[in-house]
From TrEMBL:
Residues 69-128 form the Cupin type-2 domain. InterPro entries: Bacilysin_H2HPP_isomerase, Cupin_2, RmlC-like_jellyroll, RmlC_Cupin_sf. Residues 1-24 are annotated as: Disordered. It comes from Methylovirgula ligni. This is Cupin domain.
Length: 152
């Protein structure tokens, strides 16, 4: 597996972000503590090749991680679990998920929520685009300590 990126994520800039005086401001929240949102172009993020069949692009927020997976037919994410709640949205393709003695068939349009610490594995039966949101953010990705992906 490739180490985490040292490059900052690609932020969008003008004309995508412009001043809008007086808009989106709550007078009850001090401007000194209100953070500014960041706007990103997902497809401008670096592509990390996890294996010959799995690649990802992702961003970390303060409390969550957003990832776009590209899985080729035959890709497998082996049995694992993590402290994060995982929300999976299959936007293209299909896969089978095995968890707790059950088989779940996910197709384009399926939304699947995996609670924290629940063992699960993914088997991709078609070329698939899988969008995942993890909460809290994937600290194991930040630290580079995730160990269930293998180059194949």
């Amino acid at each position: 597996m490739t180490k985490e990126f040292s490059l900052a994520p690609s932020l969008l800039s003008p004309p995508d972000v412009t001043d809008a005086p007086g808009r989106g401001i709550d007078p009850n929240i001090s401007g000194h503590i209100a953070a500014l949102p960041n706007l990103y172009e997902l497809d401008a993020q670096p592509v990390e090749e996890m294996s010959a069949l799995i690649s990802r692009q992702y961003l970390h927020g303060a409390h969550s991680t957003f990832v776009k997976w590209r899985m080729k037919k035959g890709a497998i994410v082996p049995l694992h679990h993590h402290i994060n709640e995982q929300i999976t949205w299959i936007t293209e393709g299909a896969c089978e998920v095995y968890s707790q003695g059950k088989k779940y068939l996910l197709r384009a349009g399926s939304l699947f929520i995996i609670p924290p610490n629940v063992p699960h594995e993914f088997h991709f039966t078609e070329d698939t685009i899988d969008i995942d949101i993890f909460s809290p953010q994937r600290q194991d990705w930040i630290d580079g300590t995730v160990n269930y992906y293998a180059k194949k």
